[in-house]
Amino acid sequence: MRLEHDAHTLTVYRPSRAVQCVDNGRWQVDDGTSDMRISDPEAFDAAVREASRLGLLEQDDFTPFRVTRLRASSCIRGHSPREPRVVDVGVVLKRQLDGLGFEGQGGNVVMYFGPDGSLTGFERVARRVGKVRAAVSGWRSLDDVLTETEDHLRMRRDSDFTVAQARSGYLELGRLQEQAVIQPVYVLALRLGGRNRGREEPERRIEHVVPAALNNIGPLVPGAEPDIPQTPRYSAA
Fold this sequence. Notes:
Elements: E1 2-5, E2 8-13, E3 18-23, H1 40-53, E4 61-72, E5 85-97, E6 100-103, E7 108-113, E8 119-125, H2 142-153, E9 161-171, E10 184-192, E11 204-211
């Protein structure tokens, strides 16, 4: 659903109930002179203050996560660019639940500020969390998680991939995806190739997500389909 009033556009996404608002009259507009000199702590304070005023935080617990800056510059052909200026600042606030952060495209509030420091847009992709039906009964072991990962990717650790990092948190999908359950997961940052990667072969990196709780609610990704020999539809007489 999209509502427009003057230069403002408010969008509500049905699958996730995410909300987004943009001031189209000022959204990432460079006036040619502005240079936002705002520190990360100042940006976080402004984001929390504005998000609270607009009721975007609701009863959830959000913590500062990242500050992004849009830089603009100009130059004459054949010359080096001038010193870049910051013309837009985005602040990401990540939700916390039971002491865990959120992974995925959701679970966050993003606030945008223009050159004069005023709010130019915001977005909340943080589904309401209902009553917890069952507490986590225990956490899966790393060996169990890696074995499942090997089966899903049809690869073997070390020889086909290595684990660069492992994180835990709750998984929340993006604004265009439906999601009925929010559950804890392990996020594995993998480097594909391992010992079998050739010298000229570029290194590929992916993130693989698996349920972290022993009493998880179903898989997060489809299981690997078994290799089934295909019978020819037609054969020579």
